[in-house]
Amino acid sequence: xxxxxxxxxxxxxxxxxxxxxxxxxxxxxxxxxxxxxxxxxxxxxxxxxxxxxxxxxxxxxxxxxxxxxxxxxxxxxxxxxxxxxxxxxxxxxxxxxxxxxxxxxxxxxxxxxxxxxxxxxxxxxxxxxxxxxxxxxxxxxxxxxxxxxxxxxxxxxxxxxxxxxxxxxxxxxxxxxxxxxxxxxxxxxxxxxxxxx
Length: 197
Description:
Blueprint: H1 2-33, H2 40-47, H3 51-55, H4 61-85, H5 90-107, H6 109-115, H7 128-134, H8 136-145, H9 152-171, H10 179-195
Helix pairs in contact: 1-2, 4-5, 4-6, 4-7, 4-8, 5-8, 5-10, 8-9, 9-10
């Protein structure tokens, strides 16, 4: 009995390791060549498995992208929560969250593209539930700042439109060589936004 349990645990670990290798290989390929060049065959070549082995774990390329999207939102959520906890004043929290969002997006640009379907990476839209989970700490800071009974969804999407808009401008090449300046513009914009609440 103990041997059967041990075998199941080992097998589960092997499955998780293969899945992790597939996801990492996909990210590495995207960093080098872009998401349009990522394929099951290329991933298989990198991790030295045959494509059918990958298909045992992921139905298709889109299933890999969905898993990466979910992972990206979880990582972003953790980073934003840490940023919020670093400050006690809600306006300072929002500034810290915004700065961390910016840094995280550019440090994990390949994930960010999948999370927000940039450059037509995916055929299906990203999950708004994932975005809401990642942004829950933003809503909490906004709630503490808002003096009036305001629709928190509206405030959250105003904030997110600012942040995502600036990030997307830089990522799309519309503001070449302006990464630092655009981050400053963004932080100034968020500061002005928070002063209106």
